[in-house]
Design goal:
- With about 260 residues, this protein is mainly α.
- The chain has one domain.
- The chain has 11 helices and no strands.
- The radius of gyration is 20 Å and the shape is globular.
Amino acid sequence: MDDDRSSTETAEAAESPDHGEGNPEALPRFGRSWLWLPAFIAVHIAGLFFYGVGYAAYLALSDAPRRAEFENLFAEHLMTPSGITGAYTVTAALVLLILLYAADFRQQPWQQTLALKTVPLKAYLPWLGLLVVYFLAAAAFNMVMSVEPGEFVESIAGTQHLGLLVTMVVLAPVVEELVFRGYLYKAWRQSLLGRWGTLLLTSVLFALLHAGQYDPILLWQLTVIGLLLGFAREKTGSVYVPIALHSLNNLVSWFFIVYLGLH
């Protein structure tokens, strides 16, 4: 009888969201996560530097520009579909490497740390419905308020660059969700921040990651969708759900910007 009950409890625990709260041995540690956060940022900057070196080498093969000219050319290049794709690919690869290193423990594999847990298809459906509600509300708000799209959105309007599509719909959602709703969420959820503090902080940081791309009003909308992604992670215990929602959001945005010309 006791064996049956133990088996049932084990099965229920496996199906329930894993946040690590109340477990002093839960990983990753809250304090250590604040050391890895600037490391993620530093690696992102390093990626841009390495990409810039590569771009400088490419220019040097034809006609090496002076330093001031290169800085202007590089800044312009980073706002093109090819530049966005190349720079993000390099930085994402470096971030993923350090993220997997930070998430892998002797007592706990990186798959568990990052909440790479499969869930039934039906677990996605309520969140897809909420994402549709978000789409409609955001579209209505932007039409009424005449929100400016920003330089980034204007730079990709009308383009059909395949590399940029893959970057926005696949690479960006995977990397960003593994960092924010994977590693950082797991570390902070078990701390004094609790559920609400973790939801808010990860959502704000997620929005700030895009600060150079969008209008401040759009950054508030990113905070809102960050909360939606965080709630999906909270309730399902899986990072796959926010990755799917994030990917779908970017795909819909791509379609409207590129094919319908709606900013």
